Amino acid sequence: MHPTLFVQFLSRSRRGWWDLANGFSDTYDLCRNQGDFHWVVHEPEGDKWYREDTYTSRPLPVDKGTVYMSVSYINHLYQAYVWARQHPGLKVVAGGPVAAARAGDPGAWTPLYFQLRPDVVFPDNLTITGLSVEQFFGVPDFSGTWKLDIPREIVDPGAPVYISYTLDNGCYWGRCIYCNIKEAPEDLFRRRTHMAYEFDRLDHTGKKIVRLNTGSMTPGYIREVLPTLPVADDLEYRTFMRCARAENRALQKVVSGHGPELPALTLGIGVEFPSDRMLAYMDKGITCADILETLRICGQAGIRVNGNMILGWNNLEEEDVEALEWFLAEMPENAMSSLQLRWLHAHPYTLIHQQYAGKPVFLGPFYLGFKVEISGAQKRLNQAAVDRIQAWAPRKGFRIEGLNNVIAQSGKAENAV
């Protein structure tokens, strides 16, 4: 095997599709000319991410040379740290979404999405960079042809695969108080300007689920990208959209136009906590009426919607639970496929991290923030919100996901008081 490897991770979901973290697709030819691609199956169960043997027992096929790693999740980055310690004769270079930096200086990497333990000392053979692959090797961003070889030794030819096609690496809104993407430096922003949709020619017979990667679809992306996406029985798209008025106008124009047929599309939206007071507190820049309008447009156009809702707030009022009840009653039937419930996580560098408390979470040398703890009174209000959701879900035709985790976190919060 070539002494230079470009490592990408993949895992199989409970539903049977393979999640390919294909971070080197935009620089396929550049990487292929320097070494070999190597795929590694990573642990899909989050609870096992914090077990040391998850990482120490995973082998590498080389012990000397250079390994470039595309790290999409924090466990990928921790694997880079473990491998660098296990293989002192190997140069390990890690970059990718989770390695994003708060500053553009490659000589002074400061992580964007987490913090380092104060006493951490990285191995001398480990380099972590916030640069893109193109920036690291000194070529223009998105100057190559997007390509991907499905690892046939792991993935069955007919299995569905989940792959990424990057539009940009930012979020144009960047103001939500629980998100730290606002700290991303402008000089590391990258945006694809030529949409060739090369995945349409991917040599794979199974379904291809393509994530259009961006923090949030802009009105421009909605108008210009959605109508031009390739349409095929084996292609499905997923992306995230703010339920803001400008986005709703753009989406309505696209679905109402007489242009090409829209592809199979699933939109992720932030329901967060559907009370105008709470949405304003989060600095979302939207209202409950805006979210309902998004659901109306998508329901009529046949666009699937996966909603995301956060619980664990420490400032809920009775009127917020009443607003949630009103929202659920007004929601169009069957307009939302699923509602993912999440317990509020306080990420470093966010306002939530400053205002809340909880037990710190670490993965090796990386501090990831904490799951928030709330008072008994707030716990009851959050539970009341869960009760409303459970009551309305069968009537409105959406599936609840993450319920057990929220119930477990709620119990921990109560015990912490």
Automatic annotation (TrEMBL):
Cofactor(s) of this protein: [4Fe-4S] cluster
Record has Transferase as a keyword: no
The Elp3/MiaA/NifB-like radical SAM core domain, residue ranges: 161-374
PANTHER family with a match to the protein in the record: ANAEROBIC MAGNESIUM-PROTOPORPHYRIN IX MONOMETHYL ESTER CYCLASE-RELATED
Superkingdom of the source species: Bacteria
Record protein name field: Elp3/MiaA/NifB-like radical SAM core domain-containing protein
GO molecular function: catalytic activity; iron-sulfur cluster binding; metal ion binding
Keywords (A to Z) from UniProt: Iron, Iron-sulfur, Metal-binding, S-adenosyl-L-methionine
